[in-house]
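quick one before i forget lol
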Amino acid sequence: MTKKILLTMVVVLLTLTGCNSIQSKKGKETSKKEQVVALLKALETGESEPIGIINSEKYIQHNLAIPDGLAGFGEFVSSLPANSIKANTVRVFEDGDYVFAQTDYEFFGPKVGFDVFRFENGKIVEHWDNLGEKKGPNPSGHTQLDGATEVTDLDKTEENKTLVKGFIEDVLMGKNPAKITDYISTEKYIQHNTDIADGLDGLGAALQAMAEAGITMVYTENHKILGEGNFVLSMSEGKFAGVHVAFYDLFRVENGKIVEHWDVIQEILSEDKWANDNGKF
């Protein structure tokens, strides 16, 4: 993407600020999910129309390497080498004013990322993300992005969010780790973390290996739980191997138990390196 294209994108956005909905070129109003997928793809293509979904007067940025607001977004993208971004969104979900997506990126090397956007009056006004290195398959042969994508059980969204919140607090934050089988299926647990095999046995073996190597994983605070049907995203903070990190965990729930898991762990920049004052969460 060239600086000229980025400037064009910003100009177009400014002309669209007064619109409360974005329509396709054929005049059909698009959903928030479609708008987010198109926005992420525009980072690759340089297409200007999808950028119009961002509120040019209010855009709160939680990627700590990017300055706040639309101007900050433009400044960051224009600083990148031409044609350096590729984006293929694999999963996208909606929870009220929030849309969250899981994307296969090419961004200074292969990456996997979660992006969360908050809408207000038909425009995106806030953005969070977590980006990690893309690696090979895990011991069970699963990648960081393959697996189920179909959204089901829309009537169980809140129930599934409550289940995941309980798992984060009881198991990952250590309030009552013995309750793990209340949350994770003992019959089917598909793992997409690159270092962990399927099943509770795989999880246990990985945790034991970490302990023997002196590697700690500590969840200290859960900041947000978002969900649509059988998929739930948890955004948490803690430490991994002594490093201050953000944990983004995506879970698939089936019959009241967690049966699949994807994640990205990213180091949180020290405050002296922040490009904005909004914090990671």
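fyi The helical segments are 3-16, 32-45, 69-78, 157-172, 180-183, 199-212.
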